[in-house]
Hints:
It is built from ten helices and twelve strands. It is of the alpha+beta class. The N and C termini lie far apart (57 Å).
Amino acid sequence: MRRRPLTWLIPALATAAAVTATVVLVPGGEGRDPDGRTAPAAHGERPAGKGKPDARDVVLAVHGGAGTALDRDKTTPEREKAYRGGLAEALKAGQKVLDKGGSSVDAVQAAVQRLEDNPLFNAGKGAVFTADAGHELDASIMRGSDLKAGAMAGVKSLRNPVAGARAVMDKSPHVLLSGEGADDFGARHGLKTVTQDYYWTQARWDALMAAKEAERGGKGGRKGSADSPAAVADAQSKGTVGAVAVDGRRDLAAATSTGGMTNKLPGRIGDSPLIGSGTYAKNSTVAASATGAGEVFIRGAATSTISNLMEFKGVGVATAAYEVIVKRLPGLGGDGGVIALAPNGEFDAPHSSPGMLHGYLTKDGKVVTKIFPDETPPNS
Length: 380
Ligand code: ASP
């Protein structure tokens, strides 16, 4: 009998060597140096996809929601200025904190509060309407150094739900308060309270009316066209806000705030107040704040999965965020985006929606805002 040549042994030995090398290169799957910087992934470990971050040396970033709301051809210069100005003001509010040596938690709270106070965005003033024409707001905040977190859901009378989330984190043994208990807790801790009409804006009211019209079968506008009631309601329901930051101590933080989805059922809670879905911060991996179809972001555990990919696969922030937002979540039936910041200043903002309003501040003080889909192409 002819003896088989031993050529099969070569690939087998090569595989064994590669496995050993992987184990040695990525001890415990960490792929990170003691400073928390992301080490390059071992060859073969990296999920295919985007590897290069959108920006480097970022210290603070904000988003103003994923979606299609801003079309370059239909946006007046005044409106463009208002959106860019709103994002830049939020960045400057956070920058002020960081410049004074403040913490990343204080910086993300300051940035998000500024966006909550801006009626253009779907958070605080300008929040969308529920199906029964009310407002129920959700927010959360997380600190990367010790994984402390606070959140509020279904807030009806706090001017700044993110301040409520912060109070839960700092002043209660809990992570998430909801409904009346959340409003009462905020009021007892001295937060500004408002009546429901404070949140009202004409644009959000029109979006609710368009959503009701779409439910009835949508007479105005062709079905599927950009001016159909469903499309108007969808476009105008966007505008959730969030922020991520790294401070001088290399501590990360993230925060998110929203009115939710136009025409949502009363009592519906989205991803924004859920730690690991809408918001996550861990010093050794990432600070992330999401926006988009909340139910999908909850089911896909969006932000904690980005962190887990970085921690357990040793991939960089851009690869991990792209993998979750562009490759995995759309399969669950909804789109959206995330802003994600690594402790070394690598920043990425992938989205599966046509656009995502966002901006960032670099350590040398440069402010960048991106509001049109052609400035932030999806899947890139
Ligand atoms: N994620 C938010 C929610 O589902 C909405 C959004 O980001 O537009 O409540």
